[in-house]
Amino acid sequence: MEKEKNIEIHETAFLTSTLRSLNEDLSQDYFAKLWRNPKSDIWIEKYLDRVSSEEINIHCLRNRYFLDTIKKLVDDNNVEVLINFGCGFSMYPFLLDERLVHIEIDKPEIIDYKKSKLTDWQNSDTLPKRNIHFIAVDFSEDYKHDLLTQIFSIKNNKPCFILIEGVLFFLDREETDKLFDFFDTIQKPGDFIGSVSFQDTLKESLAFRKLLDLLNQIVSNTKESDYQTIEDDYYRSQPAYQLIDHQDYFSLSAKYGNVIKLNKEEILNENFYLLKKSN
């Protein structure tokens, strides 16, 4: 996470929520617009112009895929706790069944701001009340023992879904391995992981070169190797998990009737994975 430290919060944490708000019919997120503000709108306009206008519907379909997936698992009584690693300003707690327990995990500055804003919106009846537990984590320190203790105190023995969006791109492989080992410690057989990542072909695309150019303007000395791509085999080879679904922007566009306007070369094609713990 070190390479993000020079980016202001409004430039990163607001990005996904703002994009999700720009096509509510597709994202089914009717609360993301609460995070919009003039400063973030200027940043979004620049991002869409400089990187890819397709990013709106990519982020909307990401939200829609996990929202629909988790809804079904909750309806089937397979999930009672949603643990969102790197939760940012996502609004899943207010889009899902009120019975669900939510554990929101992110850096202290994100958690402090999000908790304050959600409290204000709930007190004014802008948002419904939900069972949300916030955990602030300094990822630069050895956080795992304390975090595990906090999670178990909330989760108990309930079946859970771990969601990790927009995080793995900024980690290296060793950090990712340790994170999945940590997930294995948290979960029991029958629990789920939802993960987002890019494949190796991303770095050959025009859209990625544009993204790198933009990142070089807001993060000093960033280069292609700073950003992680992950192939399908990584998920298939997880010893304690079975890969049960894999989608990407193109397959979800076909499923939800989204019309893709740009060429593949101009798209940051996200891949979405659903894993189930088998042992």
UniProtKB/TrEMBL annotation:
Pfam families: LCM (PF04072)
The keyword Methyltransferase is assigned to this record: yes
Nucleotide-binding listed as a keyword: no
Coiled-coil regions, chain positions: none
Keywords, comma-separated and alphabetical: Methyltransferase, Transferase
Source superkingdom: Bacteria
GO molecular function: methyltransferase activity
PANTHER family in UniProt: S-ADENOSYL-L-METHIONINE-DEPENDENT METHYLTRANSFERASE YKTD-RELATED, S-ADENOSYL-L-METHIONINE-DEPENDENT METHYLTRANSFERASES SUPERFAMILY PROTEIN
Protein name, as recorded: Class I SAM-dependent methyltransferase
Lineage start: Bacteria, Pseudomonadati, Bacteroidota, Flavobacteriia, Flavobacteriales
